[in-house]
Amino acid sequence: MSASSSFSSVVRKRFLQKSSSLFSSSFLTRILPGSVKNGVCASSFKEIRTTTTTTTATTIPSFFVQRKSENNWCWPCLVTIENFNSPSSSSAFRRSYASSSTELMTSRTSPTESAQQNNKEKKKKNKKKKKSSTTTTTSKTKAELEELKTLMDMKKPGKWYPLARTMQREIILHVGPTNSGKTHAAMERLKRASSGVYCSPLRLLAWEISESLNKFGTKCDLVTGQELKRVENAEHIACTVEMVDVNKVVDCAVIDEIHLIGDDFRGYAFTRALLGTPALEVHLCGDTSCVELIEKICKDTGDKLRIRNYERLSPLNVAEEHFSKKRLEQNIEKGDCFVAFSRKAVYALKSEIERRVPLRACVIYGGLPPEARSRQAELFNKPDSGYDLLIASDAIGMGLNLNIRRIIFNELTKFDGVEIRQLSSPEVKQIAGRAGRYKMSYYDKGGGVVTTTDDGMVLDGNRKNGDNAKSDIIKSSGVSGLQFIQNQLNAPVEALKTAGLAPTFEQILEYCSKVEGATLEDAMKALSSDAIVPKYYKMRKSDEVIRLAKYLENLGMEIEDHYTFSVSPTSVDCLHSMKTLMNFAKAFLNEGHVSVKLIPKSVNKHDRKSRADAQTRMNQRSVGILATLEEQHRAYDLYLWFARRMSAQFPEYSLAEALRVMCAHSIDAELQKLSTTATIESNSRKKKSEKKEEGSSKPVKQIEELDRKILRSAINRVNEERKNLSLLSKPATTKKATTTTSRQH
Length: 745
Prior knowledge:
The chain is an alpha/beta fold. The protein contains 27 helices and 20 strands. Helix 5 runs antiparallel to helix 6. The strands form five sheets. Strands 4-3-5-2-6-7-1-8 form an eight-stranded mixed β-sheet, with helices on both faces. Strands 9-16-13-10-12-11 form a six-stranded parallel β-sheet, sandwiched between helices. It has a two-stranded antiparallel sheet with strand order 14-15. The longest helix has 34 residues, at 653-686. It is globular.
């Protein structure tokens, strides 16, 4: 064997051993000066491929394998590989291998290959020219990156509100369970203050506080996203927490349900109210879970903090036995409240109870308009209204004073939009605590009672896909439903770890100006995911806002209008709401004027071909009508929300408000009719076998006379607003009488 061949075999063996760790396929094509297209070194590459495929992911280019030449490595290739494999190879050689190998290749290449090499050199020259042109802008890009870094730095959110930081505020934190009097104590201070603001988590609660303050003699305005009711010479404001004015100095502020500061979606609004409300006294009402978090925030802002603890004013007892549905007629009593966690379950439970028991039930759930919720609560609390039961969702957990004797959990699980899960300890405490309200009918009768309808039903795991998974994850175990309730009531309070934050519109606008081509969606995603915040803060989940921004992206809106439409209270899961938003957006862009008439009609989806009995079909029809009215009410709410912010483009505020009020009263009337039909059926079943006597079958009142008058006045107001609108839009000489009726609603 010659010296060259032995050297070749040694180098090849070493190369095969180290190729997987040292070289990639693209690297080999650059360093080997041999003319690979003419077959030089092709056989060795073939050997490399068969050797390394089982041990490494390195892929040799296919044209090396396709060559059928059996030539060994050329001498320049052997020298190159040996130098790279040598431990003593210098870094200078490694840096200069490309130029040296190129010279060797040009001396051995064909004319076509030399042309390709020339093209490569031209490309390199063009790249150098581009680099030289970009050197002039490097200083600008560095400055922009620094500005972007500064924008993403949100370590001091308290500095966003300079007016509040100039004041020496005193924070009074009232903490305790439900029915402990913590909110009452804060409200008494607000009534005595010369000026103040009440920040509510719910529109309904803001409305109730406004009414109560005005009745007390403290003049108070009402400000929500959809409503603005001014009272002459008022120095107090009751508002939803998102609408608090951080530029108006007041004597006293009350922020209710402050523990919602940790909510993933709405927590940012409570953080903004806490950090930015310019008040000498800020009263916070919530449970004990938020104490440590509030202490950290107050330490950061420099505000003085005082904590007041409260205990429950009336006892709350867990029943010894669960509520048996089989013995519903014997077990049910006036003042009972059944809890379910979906609109469908609420109506199903209402229908079942009213068919079997001659009692009427009110309903309260999240999708019900605030006006209808308030009226249902009023009917339930009124002793002689004829409504002695309540079927509700977890919406009763805050904002309503209800005369409940016993809370009966019909379910111990709920679908939270992602998965079915068991009720958490705070949820059980919040709902169960509504029983035995202080200074109400059942306060002196042993306090409140909580129980469950099903025994031995607990959650064994988590699944997604909604109600279809419920039967798979709930199964009998050693823990009864009553024991589960008791455990959740006794569970220690989990401290909140983070408060919500949200980027402001100014920050979004600045991001879009600094990042070329950035859209609103890009800015929202970047500021939500890349912002640097303290450990006890978190950026809000902006999934719905981002979805709406993407939904409207192709309309060509200005970024300010695009942002306003994206943060609107539109339900992304409701097809009717999305259609309404798109109709508003198109009219806003094309005509500059948006009419209430653009709200699409809702379709009643009840099954007309159902094989159920006549009474069941009637109930299904009523539930379908209620769903339609609720969709229309949300659409009128959406119009009012835009009209509060773009009055010139959404000018029909009065008509939309009249339609919304009429819609709410129509919902309440339909609920009463639904209860009436079920009660009549229950009475007729009991008297079916008895001989009918004259006057023994008096029909139950379908709708309360007061509600009839309210609905009639609401209808008249709608007709008046439509008439006024038509007179404004037509010349005085062509006035026409309006013949619009309200039957279609």
